[in-house]
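Input.
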Amino acid sequence: MKKTIILSALAAFFFASMPLAQAQSKSFNMAKWVEVYNSILKELNRSYVDSLEVGRIQRAAIDAMLSSLDPYTQYIPEEEREDFQMQLTNTYGGIGAVIYKPDVNGNVLINEPYENSPAALAGLRCGDEVLAIDGVSTHGLTSAESSERMRGKPGTTVVLTVKKLRGETKDVPVVRQRISLPSVQYVGMLNEADGYVLLDKFTEGVGQNIRDAYHSLKAQGMKRLVLDLRGNGGGLLNEAVNIVSLFVPRGSVVVTAKGRGIASEEVYKTTTDPVDTEIPILVLVDSGSASASEIVSGALQDYDRATIVGTRTYGKGLVQSIRPLPYDGQLKVTTAKYYTPSGRCVQAIDYSHRNEDGSVGFIPDSLTHEFTTARGRKVRDGGGITPDFTVKGQRYSRLTYSLVLNGIVEQYALKYVCEHESIPAVEDFHFTDYEDFVAYASDKEFDYRSSARALFDDMKKTLSEDGLSEAVAPQLEALEKSLDMDKATFLRLKKDEIIPFIEEEIVVRYYFQQAGIRIRTRHDSQLHEALKQPSI
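Output.
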């Protein structure tokens, strides 16, 4: 009996001591590795054969440490805080224009002034050449360096020496302003019934923007709301809650953030009265829809409040918080995972292995869990939001990607502006001079091979490395001949695919960004197919 009592007392003491021992062990390991790190740095500084860039290797060490945790925990030093804040607010101090610099030794071209921006109000137009910025020649400056010189504190003036597209060279003073890039990029009616809202980011105040957009479209006769979240990488969680609040009853759970330990769990509910709990909603998503986009689409899906159409979303179910650091630095650290109202965590099971576009790969049902929506429909977790109706986006040829990425279409648009003082209204504009584009693009150097030809060239190289080229020479020659296509012929073959990109690039230079989006919706096959899907 005495032995049993003694053993029980020892066991109780052992288990009661475990948290203290674990805490001491954790503290010891932390102190140990800090000491080891400092010792290594001091020894490198004293003994390394070459001069040591301490700042560079310290930053590399920090970045490597954080990248081993997840892709979203990041260190933000003081000098990068302004750029980070711009990502959160979509604002910066500057003149409000996209510039283009085809050659570092050439001049800066005004590519696209924003509507009502300081640049536009100062009379700058697409095609104007900026020869100098505050007296400093743009020759030798990179595009980034030129842009940095144009930015500055709102209210200050920058003087641009400009060679006008159809006129003289003169100094143009431009008063910088706080430039706010719109997160709601477009609001308009697609037809007599469907109101369309294109949301690019979840920045501060975007919930109110969507509320205003709803009222504007409703006044125009909207019967169904189309909310386009394709390519929307997220942003502020509270703005996602504000948007869901517009369409579900007050007090509804939108998302639950669960951190380490029960005390860190936080439930986000709607706190305002909705504007409409009945209007049909169609939400467009794709593999670029992440984070706050998944909160909105997941919540509306769980409440059977919207029909989700497109392809499976990115699968980022992690919440980041900002923590202050010494010397005015910041740490963006993952502090929780978020869960939709039905209990789903949309975080990809393995975020270190994704498809080429960053989206979630195939996940078997055996690794996921089943949940139910408000009406009892089955939904699953494991990575992203799976649409109610899958509608794939248009696939583009390798040629089209190459034209866009190499700036051929953009350069042609600048040429077009130089040659055409005006164009018809957006609804009436159709690009018809395609042969002119073919002649222009054919004269440019870029990789115009088809995907099949690129694969053939890789295969041919591998066969040569394996010493098999001679053995299959006749077959290779015949296949190469069938795949060979000159640049102009290939451009003509892909005419219908390329024209929408040309039209969009041209109209934004006459009628600004929203005009380009109107052209985009004209040719958006995924959007048109989504509109045919029934409401859930």
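Residues 189 and 220 are 8 Å apart (CA to CA).
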